[in-house]
Amino acid sequence: MSSDARTHVLTRIRRSLNRGELPDEARAELDRRINEPKPGVVPARATGEHAALVERFVEMAEFAAATVTRVPGMEAVPTAVADWLKGHNLAPKVVAAPDATLDGLEGHGTLEVTRGVAHPADQAAVTPCFAGVAETGTLVLLSGPEHPTSLNFLPDNHIIVVRASQVVGGYEEAWAKLRAQGAVPRTVNMVTGPSRTGDIEQTLQLGAHGPRRLHIVLIDDHRRGTDSGEG
């Protein structure tokens, strides 16, 4: 909607409510609240020392039916991915996000890696994430040229690589972190466990609208005093 069209629509709404233009003070206050949002009430489980938040993230992710493998560094990720695929009788073949944070994924001798968007025949996808939320075990995934959204939903198996240094307490921290980096991407997906739905008898079915398995490879970089990684 153009600026002129927006002004026309808002003017008509104000007239229907018998309201005039907002005073400059009120407009400035609204702009301030938009640009400097204040968090609401944050639950206790979203607070604490970072090491405790990482443990809580793992606990909540597993509670949501995700599985977690912890590794000391990116160099161990290819083996962790290959072992997980083998453990589920899946071919050692993945489609991965063309993101630089996954460089080295091709380092495993038996793992076949292609980069780009997902296709219907792809069985497993590997993506990085922007943040992990300890409060609910949720993973924050951003769209963009290096993060095709199809990888999050099309394959039956989704493997997400997250660094411990990317774990935050609550959603408010994740949004603040996202705003701080500048422009917000077109799509922000928050994923908690594999896709699921319940029928009329509330029988839980996994994989109804997306991956039936969600596996997290957690890089314990916080134990080495680093803060590298995406975001």
From TrEMBL:
Q: Which organism is it from?
A: Caenispirillum salinarum AK4
High-level lineage: Bacteria, Pseudomonadati, Pseudomonadota, Alphaproteobacteria, Rhodospirillales
Q: What is this protein called?
A: Putative L-lactate dehydrogenase
Domain LUD, residue spans: 125-219
The record's InterPro entries line, in alphabetical order, gives: FTHF_cligase-like_sf (IPR024185), LUD_dom (IPR003741), NagB/RpiA_transferase-like (IPR037171)
